[in-house]
Amino acid sequence: MNVADMDDLAARLDAAGGQPVDDPVRADLIMVNTCTVRAKAEEKAYSFFGELKRLRRTDGTRPLLVGMGCVVNKQREELAKRFPHLDLWLDFSDPDGVLAALRQSFAPLTALDLDAEFTPALDTGLSPLRFVTAIRGCNHACAYCVVPRARGPQRDVPLDRIVAEAQRLERAGAPDLAVLGQNILAYGTTSGDKRRRFVELLETLLGETGFRWITYLTSLPGDLTEEICERIVAHPRVTPLLHLPLQSGSDRVLADMRRGYDLGHYRRLVAYARQCRPDLYLTTDLLVGFPTETEEDYQATLNAAEELGFDDAFMFAYSERPGTLAARKYGDPLPRGEKLRRLNELIARQRAWGKARNRRYVGQRLAVIVERIDGAAAVARTAFNKPVHLPAAGLKVGEYALTEITSAKVSSFAGNAVP
Fold first, then answer.
1. 303 Cβ contact list (under 8 Å, min separation 6)
2. Which has the minimum average pLDDT: 5-14, 241-250, 339-348, 391-400?
3. Among 133-137, 203-207, 275-279, 295-299, whose mean pLDDT is lowest?
4. What stretch of H or E contains 31?
5. Which helix (H) or strand (E) covers residue 288, if one does?
6. Domain coordinates in residue numbering, the chain
7. Has residue 42 got a pLDDT over 70?
8. Which range has highest mean pLDDT (70-84, 170-184, 292-306)?
9. Quick one: pLDDT at residue 65?
10. Rounded CA gap, 164 and 132, in Å?
């Protein structure tokens, strides 16, 4: 979501006559968009804020420095006192709001007159995928998650604006599209028109654009239905990637997390999704060390991960987020060493399982998008977002190619282009 927001803002600044620079000293404007979903992300933001204090040109001037996003939302006053060298603090990252604030503080933008419905159609190079945001915020209240507090309740972007933005990206040459929401499957629940649900959103995009691949992120298991599996997951122009965060394999911990489903329900969803889409590429999030997690609960997560056969997983140790239900109700009783032990074991085992599952692609021919060429070597991306390293001969950045996979690692493939 942060990458999508910054891509959007970069496009707006480009439309206003700006251009990106590699050297921060040459910049007129530096924006730091922050994330608070993990403690490590906050620490990185603090470190970067501190480094900006030393930023000076030879004449003593410096760029306008802006801190923004979820960390600012939590502690705006404290940050302003701790880092007084920053000029502007914005407790949001919504591009419309950020641009309005910049017009009040940044002289080159004071006369900016972009249409209120401006949608970016620029490949800024900040991200390999082209994004369109359908939902901001979240209405779910998972016990450990700070997103609803940091990003606010769910706000659905009007369907016609989503379609217009996707069409502009397509006209600009974007090869594929990713539709984003904190819980994308909940689209339509706050839009005022309950008929325009997630299914209608995706089917409208499929009908009114020609993207070969459309991806959607992220899906809460409690909102995945058989209808979605049948009409969207199974659609040939929707990528086979399904990111479905499990978090824990223990029903008791899932209940404490307030996830809204149990392992049996999740298991049935995965089975039906695979029935509808035999080439499904299933990824997940797994969180160990939740305050009420016992060793038995942790073992249940290991067992579930092995049973469900995830192709890949984002794995984390619990990080207490101030203001969440988990922080208020449970604290953070597990020693960090124990949480790291569980995490490291989970990572090692999931990597082994994922590598074994990746071997099924060796010998297969997969369509890829070429993303980077460096001399004689190229890096491409499969429909399920797996990097493929291959010879660059005859390939062009941004084009689709057919590749025969010759070897598979945990995080990438090697292959050869097929004429």
1. 249
2. 5-14
3. 133-137
4. strand 29-34
5. strand 281-288
6. 2-109, 131-360, 362-417
7. yes
8. 292-306
9. 92
10. 10
Hey, how many other C-beta atoms are within 10 angstroms of the C-beta on 45?
A: 22
- Return the pLDDT at 113: 57
CA 160 and chain centroid, separation: 23
Q: Regarding the domain delimited by 131-360, which CATH topology (the fold level of the hierarchy) does it fall under?
A: pyruvate-formate lyase- activating enzyme (3.80.30)
Tokens of 356: 């074994």
| 131-360 against 362-417: fold identical | no
Say yes or no to pLDDT of 231 above 70.
Answer: yes
DSSP E strands, 71-125: 88-90
Residue pair 388/382 in contact (Cβ under 8 Å)? The answer is yes
121 pLDDT band, cuts 50/70/90, is very low
* DSSP-assigned states of every residue in 215-253: EEE---GGG--HHHIIIIIT-TTB-SEEE---B-S-HHH
Distance CA 324, CA 70 (A): 14
Give the per-residue pLDDT at 130.
Answer: 80
> Which CATH number is correct for 362-417, 2.60.40.10, 2.40.50.140, 2.60.120.280, 3.60.15.10?
2.40.50.140
Q: Is the dihedral of CA 226, 231, 234, 240 positive or negative?
A: negative
Distances (CA, A) of 33 to 24, 127, 280: 15, 15, 33
pTM for the predicted model, two decimal places: 0.79
- Round to whole Å and give the CA distance between 219 and 132: 16
- The encoded tokens of residue 123 equal 């490949």
2-109, superfamily in CATH? Methylthiotransferase, N-terminal domain (3.40.50.12160)
Nearest partner of 63 among 20, 125, 111, 118, judged by Cα: 20
CB 32 within 8 A of CB 70: no
